[in-house]
Amino acid sequence: MKLFGRKQKDDTETGPLVVLEVEGMHCTSCGLLIDDELEEIPGVRSASTDLRSGRSTIRLEEGAEIDTAVLVAAVENAGDYKARPAA
After folding, report:
1. Long-range contacts for 60-68 (Cβ within 8 Å, ≥24 apart)?
2. What is the pTM assigned to this prediction?
């Protein structure tokens, strides 16, 4: 796992979005750790986790098919966090 190895975000990014609700974050660094873990998954273009909203927005590559359970597992692997698909 890269520590805070940020991918460049592009305002013109396309691809499917997945939003997860995340519990257990205490600071901005928690979100960055989660983003790094998610961005290690092949097919994930970018991830942005927000402490205030408690949500992680994941942009997938066009055509990528990633099971939501894989994304949830990555969040939970990043630390003492719980995640689930947003309603």
Report:
1. 60/15, 60/16, 60/17, 60/18, 61/15, 62/14, 62/15, 64/15, 64/16, 66/18, 66/41, 68/18, 68/20
2. 0.84
